[in-house]
Write a structure and sequence with these properties.
The chain contains eight helices and 72 strands. It is an alpha+beta fold. α4 (793-814) runs antiparallel to α5 and α6 (866-877) packs antiparallel against α8 (917-941). It is elongated, with a radius of gyration of 60 Å.
Length: 975
């Protein structure tokens, strides 16, 4: 943190009289703040605005908030840098004892190690002074009195040196050689090359002469011991003689600040205020400090480098303010009240310990008085002018009358815990103290159950009383406090009251300001309305339309007419503290009493720096690497690497209040992010092109010009569009291959399952077919038995032979899922021939086959028609007493084989009426097996079969008897 020091000085006059003068707020920077060394030899400001400091351990670059230190490891030719010079090209030159030239430019230190133009044999002579010429040429004068030239391409001894050119030659020709240092230290002004030059040990012109002032600013400055000369080829004029000002030490450095002159010596710093106006006002500062250099920067700040005590800075705005505290005349730095006796032009300053100080019209502390000598708290809380040469002063323990002419003090009334005093126009005094209200010499209202904190008189008989429990009204007639105002003020803690032109202004402890007219609140001002703080400590009215509100965070100025806040004044503007106890205004000068001293200044001339700050890029960090600043940044993408841009501003006044805004969207109107941090992080920045825009603003300034940087994060090969396309395609192909494999596995599983089910269905069909075989065999064997019993052995043998052939054919067919239609017809023909033999040729049969069936090879399940034919013979034709007829018709219907078995037997219903359990059982078994086979065939083939039994007599076939069985059989058709 920066240190602030209040310094006071001695003003020296020819009469050797001394008085105490105003102090200056001086800021100190040292090693703990980041400075390279407490010993600082020199300071310069470069073209960009940075302040550079030369130290024995390197150089420091300062932007107002941060020091960036450079040493030999960073490129310096030597750590011991004794002088600095900044040229118009933006280069900062470093003068080291080894004599090797080097400079800083565009974030890089240039030396012979990295810049061949700086290779030079110094012969152990170091550079002392630097001059700049046209086209950026730099001339140096070294300790061997030789001139060295740098032209941007090489560094050489200049031919001027061979002709005897020296420092005087360079100074005489200032139109060619512009000095890069503020002054020159010489032992003598005698110039051998210019015998006609006149030397004036005493200035022949009045020091306030404007022409002289211009000449001094435009010409070289020469310091000889404790005198300062303005040097030209024509003459050298002494415009400052230290002995005349009581300065007998050698002058180490000087600085011209408008009409002021700063002089540094090995023992102290001298501030000659108004020197070029002819004023004889010298302030001795930094006593016992060795001043090595002085610098006035572009903003008007003064920089003082010292030998062993770091760097001191006096902000430009502090010259607009005057400060008083216990270091330069006051008893204490804690000020509680302030007022003025305008007749005698005396400022009265109330402090703690009952001390009253007076300051005369020359801003000199003249006298000090002790009013309240009681123990404990005895601060001077209120000072009010009453009559000519008289002021009423309230302290913690009493009310006093003070004569400003005779300086006599008398106690008017001892009052414990006095809080506020007010005086009517006729001179009546009202007092608020602890739990009582006192009308002096008249009456006292005591034993209140609240704390009276303030009082405001309306006239000689009516007044308001502010308490910690709200607002009250009282009259001399009733002598009783009555609650006043709206309900809003019932429980508000009031700190001060001010009656102004029919309105009561109420300062509260935590709710800002209320304005009351005729018992009604007409205005409320708080921090929401830009009030400095809601904690009000005192109200002061200047009588010309401005109300000053003293708060714990500065002073707010309110326009009485508009009842609006016009401005705030805080320590950021130059006050020595934000804890304000009292305010007083007189003829444009504003006096502010604070807990850290008294500050006074021209209220209408407070400097406000509205110039936007200079913003710069400090460095870029990407991943683990740091890069120098540039207009653009291009880098290959690093996974999970953070991109950070570190920015800074050159702000020497209130650098901690600098705000930044950054935008990464490229939209200059939207997307701005506000931060107080100067490091802008972007974690895991993805490949792409970005535009980073940053701007800054300082206290009360506008936003700076936007600093823009293009950021290109290049993708890795696998992040390129073609690589991503290939990877995506490969991923899709992989997914498709995986899906195909899964689908294939599923299909194979389904196929295996279908095949398994088909095999099961086939086996079931074969098993059902095999159920038919025993039935047919049984019936056939019965027929053989019958033939044998009838003694028809030959016919029985023929039957057995045909039966054996049929059985062999049936066994072959039973192993197949499908057989051809021709094989089925051949099988049925052989079967019918056997049945004709068995039933003694009691029926005839006939096959009718559609011609379309002959074009294909038709495959059908085996043993599916035979049971129907067997039923027709057994149950339809056999019971008839006459010969019967059986017709088997085969046709194609929608890729199915239509088969009808038509007999002219007894009919289906009549057959079912025969009570033969064997026949019923056989019938139900045969038909149910056929239906089940058709269902199984459907399960693995998908074709739908059909079986229908029709009793012709009942179904509209006229008088015809018999049964018609129709069946649709799933087939396999091949050419």
């Amino acid at each position: 943190m920066n240190r602030y020091i209040m310094l006071w000085g001695l003003v020296f006059f020819c009469t050797v009289t001394t008085t105490l003068a105003q102090g200056l707020m001086i800021r100190n920077y040292n090693v703990k703040d980041g400075l390279a060394n407490a010993t600082v030899y020199a300071a310069v400001q470069d073209k960009d605005g940075f302040i550079w400091f030369a130290t024995p351990t390197g150089v420091s670059k300062f932007d107002g908030k941060r020091f960036r230190n450079y040493a030999k490891k960073d490129g310096l030719t030597d750590n011991d840098v004794v002088k600095l010079a900044a040229d118009s090209e933006g280069r900062v030159w470093f003068f080291t004892l080894n004599g090797k030239p080097s400079f800083y430019d565009k974030s890089v230190i240039h030396s012979e190690e990295n810049d061949t133009s700086l290779i030079f044999n110094s012969r152990s002579h170091y550079m002392q002074y630097a001059f700049e010429g046209k086209r950026g040429y730099i001339w140096f004068l070294n300790s061997n009195n030789r001139i060295v030239q740098y032209n941007g391409r090489k560094t050489t001894y200049d031919k001027l040196g061979a002709s005897g050119a020296d420092l005087f030659f360079l100074m005489r020709n200032d139109s060619i050689f512009h000095p890069l240092q503020a002054s020159f230290h010489l032992e003598s002004l005698k110039d051998p090359g210019n015998p006609d030059q006149k030397i004036y040990p005493v200035c022949p012109f009045p020091i306030e002469d404007a022409a002289l002032h211009t000449r001094i600013n435009d010409s070289a400055i020469v310091i000889i011991r404790n005198t300062i000369y303005s040097f030209t080829a024509k003459d050298a004029i002494c415009f400052f003689n230290g002995a005349e000002w009581g300065i007998h030490d050698d002058i180490s450095h000087m600085c011209i600040d408008n009409d002021n002159l700063w002089v540094g010596t090995q023992r102290a710093l001298y501030f000659l205020k108004g020197f070029f106006k002819g004023e004889r006002n010298a302030i001795r500062l930094l006593d016992n400090h060795y001043i090595t250099s002085l610098l006035k920067d572009r903003d008007g700040n003064i920089w003082i480098t010292t030998f062993g005590d770091g760097v001191y800075n006096i902000p430009y705005k502090n010259f607009y303010f005057s400060y008083l505290d216990n270091t330069n005349g006051l008893y204490s730095h804690s000020i509680f009240s302030i007022s003025k006796d305008k007749k005698n032009n005396l400022l009265l300053i109330g402090q703690n310990a009952g001390i009253l100080n007076m300051m005369d019209g020359q801003n000199r502390i003249s006298k000090q008085f002790t009013l309240d000598t009681t123990s404990g708290r005895n601060s001077v809380l209120a000072i009010l002018p009453r009559n000519d040469d008289q002021a009423i002063i309230g302290t913690d323990n009493g009310l006093y009358k003070f004569n400003t002419l005779t300086h006599k003090t008398s106690l008017l009334k001892a009052v414990k815990m006095l809080k506020d005093v007010d005086i009517t126009a006729s001179g009546k005094i009202r007092i608020a103290a602890k739990n009582q209200v006192i009308a002096l010499d008249e009456y006292t209202i005591g034993d209140l159950d609240m704390l009276a904190t303030s009082i405001a008189c309306i006239n000689d008989s009516d007044y308001y009383v502010g308490t910690n429990a709200g607002l009250y009204f009282c009259t001399d007639a009733k002598r009783q406090l009555v609650p006043a105002g709206a309900d809003t003020l019932r429980k508000v803690s009031i700190k001060d009251l001010k009656w102004i032109n029919g309105s009561l202004w109420i300062g509260t402890a935590d709710q800002g300001i209320y304005v009351m007219q005729q018992d009604a609140i007409v205005k409320h001002l708080s921090t929401a309305n830009n009030l400095a703080s809601d904690i009000c400590q005192q109200l002061y009215y200047d009588g010309i339309g401005r109300l000053y509100v003293a708060t714990n965070r500065g002073v707010s100025v309110i326009d009485i007419k508009t009842q609006s806040i016009t401005r705030n004044i805080t320590s950021n503007d130059g006050l020595n503290s934000d804890d304000i106890r009292g305010v007083y205004s007189d003829n444009g000068t504003l006096y502010i009493a604070t807990s850290n001293g008294l500050c006074y200044f021209n209220a209408d001339n407070i400097p406000v720096d509205t110039v936007p700050p200079v913003i710069y890029l400090n460095n870029i960090r990407y991943g683990d690497s740091t890069f120098l600043p540039a207009d653009d940044f291009v880098h290959l993408y690093k996974r999970k690497a953070s991109f950070e841009a570190e920015f800074g501003t050159i702000v020497f006044d209130l650098p901690e209040l600098v705000e930044y805004q950054y935008n990464f969207s490229g939209d200059t109107t939207n997307g701005w992010v506000t931060t107080m941090s100067n490091i802008i992080p972007f974690p895991d920045l993805q490949p792409g092109g970005y535009r980073l825009m940053v701007r800054a603003r300082k206290y009360k300034s506008d936003w700076s010009k936007t600093l823009t940087m293009d950021v290109d994060i290049l993708p890795r090969w696998y992040q390129q569009w073609w690589a991503r396309g290939i990877l995506l395609l490969a991923a899709l192909l992989g997914i498709l291959a995986g899906l195909r494999y899964i689908i294939r596995r599923i299909k194979q599983a389904e196929k295996r399952k279908t095949e398994y089910n088909r095999r099961i269905a086939e086996l079931e069909a074969k098993a059902l077919t095999n159920q038919m075989n025993p039935h047919f065999i049984f019936n056939s064997l019965n027929s053989v038995q019958h033939l044998i019993l009838e003694k028809e052995e030959k016919q029985a043998l023929n039957f057995l032979a045909d039966f054996a052939t049929l059985m062999r054919q049936m066994l072959n067919n039973s192993r197949k899922s499908y057989i051809s239609l021709e094989e089925e017809i051949a099988f049925l023909t052989r079967y019918l021939e056997l049945e004709k033999i068995r039933f003694a040729h009691s029926f005839t049969y006939h096959f009718i086959m559609e011609d379309a069936l002959k074009e294909y090879t038709i495959y059908i399940p085996p043993m599916i028609i035979q049971p129907i034919v067997e039923n027709a013979i057994k149950h339809g034709l056999a019971p008839k007493n006459i010969s019967g007829y059986l017709e088997i018709r085969l046709e194609m219907v929608d890729d199915l084989l239509y088969c009808s078995v038509d007999d002219d037997g007894i009919g289906w219903d009549k057959s079912n009426s025969i009570k033969s359990s064997r026949l019923i059982k056989h019938e139900s078994t045969a038909l149910s097996v056929i239906k089940e086979r058709l269902q199984i065939i459907k399960s693995f083939n998908g074709s739908v079969g059909k079986l229908e039994i029709i009793d012709k007599f009942k179904s509209g076939f006229g008088n015809k008897e018999g049964t018609l069985v129709e069946i649709l059989i799933p087939i396999v058709k091949m050419l």
